[in-house]
Amino acid sequence: MSKGRKSGTKATSFGSNTAVMKKGERESSRLALIPAYRREMRVVYEKILVAVDQSPISDRAVLAARDLAQLSKGEVWLLHLREFEWGGRAGALPPRETPSEAEAEVKASVEILTQAGVKAHGVVKNTGYGYAAREIVADAIELDCGIIVMGSRGRSDLAGLVLGSTAHKVIHLTDRPVLIVR
């Protein structure tokens, strides 16, 4: 206990505001001491873009977006990109997954969100191999999403730089917040 403070009191700090509470005073009464503009401040994401693929990490990203959307009463846009590779003279090689597999992935994620009471939309697009990050950022801008949510396999910064992590690229290309789920 510091000098000058009466017995049975507790000092609580709120940024630049410090309040002294009496013993037995309810913690909720501290809210009255916080300036009104700070009590009402809340991060709200009206639109959330979630980049999904067919991985367990992607499933966790959908659940994180669900929680964000429930807190902010926002809507979620699910984006699944089918990447094709350039095969030289053969032209573009088809993606590893069929369009129906990609649609099923997005539809399952949309169903999870709608069951939780979240408004959700699903989009499947084709893109060239290595261009997924640019497409994710472009869609976030086009849809005016406030945040991008995506999974990461947890590579280090060096491995992401050398191997080309999509999450690393999105973080560097966008001007919006990015929530990375591992």
Please, could you describe this protein's structure?
- The protein is α/β, with parallel strands linked by helices and 182 residues long.
- The chain folds into two domains: 9-40, no CATH class; 47-181, Rossmann fold (3-Layer(aba) Sandwich), CATH 3.40.50.620.
- 36% of the residues lie in helices and 28% in strands.
- It has six helices and eight strands, in the order ββαβαββαβαβααβ.
- It has helices at residues 36-40, 56-72, 99-115, 132-143, 157-163, 166-173, and strands spanning 9-14, 17-22, 47-52, 75-86, 92-93, 119-128, 147-151, 178-181.
- The strands form two sheets. Strands 3, 4, 5, 6, 7 and 8 form a six-stranded mixed sheet that branches. It has a two-stranded antiparallel sheet with strand order 1-2.
- The longest helix is centred in the middle third of the chain and has 17 residues, at 56-72.
- It is globular and about 70 Å long.
- It starts with 8 loop residues before the first strand and ends with a strand.
- 25% of the residues are buried.
- Residues 45-182 form the UspA domain.
- Belongs to the universal stress protein A family.
- Residues 9-19 have a biased composition (Polar residues).
- InterPro entries: Rossmann-like_a/b/a_fold (IPR014729), Universal_stress_UspA (IPR006015), UspA (IPR006016).
